[in-house]
């Protein structure tokens, strides 16, 4: 689709945005992997005074975040694992750039919500959560943290794409596990919300 085509779709919903106080969230995949397209869409939303949010892993050149940041009202920033080796194992990339970008956004006093999807057996251990909590609490402007429960919604998509799904046997976390994760992060002095 072109920018004009996407903006035409967005414009159809303006009455709902006005009534709800909502706006447009760009997610993916990874919206920062198409920075020029995303920037043009964000500019289009600003022209018609729509609130904008970008849901990102933060894995993008710092210049990209800096360039589009002026047009983003809210960053929904996903953090997964604090241990770089484990992060590489499960995502295929280092978390160094991701953490550096989050620090930079916080220094710029951007509005951020850090989102942590709890995946049993992967990132729900106390060490990871405590390290994550300490890191977020150390930011210039510590953001709210939303705890999300891993779900199997991606399983059907992977089947349609005829791709292997690495977490086929992984079950969603229990309510107790979510509550424990939230408690660990609150111990770090963070504002934590479950769901998101």
Please give the structural blueprint.
Elements: H1 3-11, H2 14-20, E1 23-26, H3 35-47, E2 51-56, H4 62-69, E3 74-78, H5 84-91, H6 96-107, E4 112-118, H7 126-137, E5 144-149, H8 153-160, H9 175-187, E6 192-194
Parallel strand pairs: 1-2, 2-3, 3-4, 4-5, 5-6
Helix pairs in contact: 1-3, 4-6, 7-9
H/E order of the elements? HHEHEHEHHEHEHHE
- CATH architecture type of the largest domain: Alpha-Beta Barrel
What structural class is derived from the secondary structure elements? alpha/beta
| Spans where pLDDT lies below 50 across 5 or more residues | none
Envelope shape: globular
Characterization of this structure:
The chain has two domains: 1-78, pyruvate-formate lyase- activating enzyme, CATH 3.80.30; 89-196, TIM Barrel (Alpha-Beta Barrel). 46% of the residues lie in helices and 16% in strands. The chain is built from nine helices and six strands; from the N terminus they run H-H-E-H-E-H-E-H-H-E-H-E-H-H-E. The protein has helices at 3-11, 14-20, 35-47, 62-69, 84-91, 96-107, 126-137, 153-160, 175-187, and strands at 23-26, 51-56, 74-78, 112-118, 144-149, 192-194. Strands 1-2-3-4-5-6 form a six-stranded parallel sheet. The longest helix is centred in the first third of the chain and has 13 residues, at 35-47. The two termini are 29 Å apart.
